[in-house]
């Protein structure tokens, strides 16, 4: 009876762990960060090439194949970001990712080969709508997914928590606390750099007169802020896991919200700042308020997230 009861408890625990995936370990987190950086860089490159097509009112074969390849890389890295989600959300979001990025890549090839064909141009126009969703809407999905998986903690200090500690047998509390403070410092410095770059904006939505060096610094700071936001939430989560035996609460929900805002606004600011180094085509997709909203949102969310980290109790 005792053995049967233990087996039943283990089966229930295994079922719960299957429904609620375990928190990310250090290796999974590193892969998530690499996938995010690859996705952000390829997504930005694709947006710039698509904007270049609209500026020149034509798609060259070289740009068409470059867009197709880059969008495939962006979609593949986006699917990698979904790998730790539960089965059903992962399948649904993976299908959405494929349906967005593959036709968006084919749009440039269809446009380049259609010529004066009415049917080809009609197909290209319909696919252009998918490109708009891919460039503008998909960053929201990325931000929500990252905030969800990085803020995931066990329900209690039970078998699931013992598995988490087995994956990381020495979850040093000071190490994660110090890592949180370092990421908070990086967030503040990135926000200051973005604020300086934002001060060089001559008028709302116009970055044509911004020096390329300032645009480069702003782009780097925006991408750094997004990455630091991910590490901040991860550090807060690991602190809670390490202290779960003492009844420590999970990371505040506002930390996940601020991380999601930092990611999506940082991606927009990175894309706009990068495009300003080579041209002025990003406004075609994000509108004239892309720069102010992206930079302003990154500054505010970075500062608020850093303050939240600093205000955390010393034992968390």
From TrEMBL:
Superkingdom of the source? Bacteria
**Which keywords does this Swiss-Prot/TrEMBL entry list?**
Membrane, Transmembrane, Transmembrane helix
Question: According to the UniProt record, where is the region Disordered?
Answer: 1-20
Where is the chain membrane-spanning?
29-52, 64-85, 91-115, 127-150, 179-200, 212-234, 254-272, 284-310
User: Is the keyword Hydrolase assigned to this protein?
Assistant: no
Name it: Integral membrane protein
Originating species: Brevibacterium sediminis
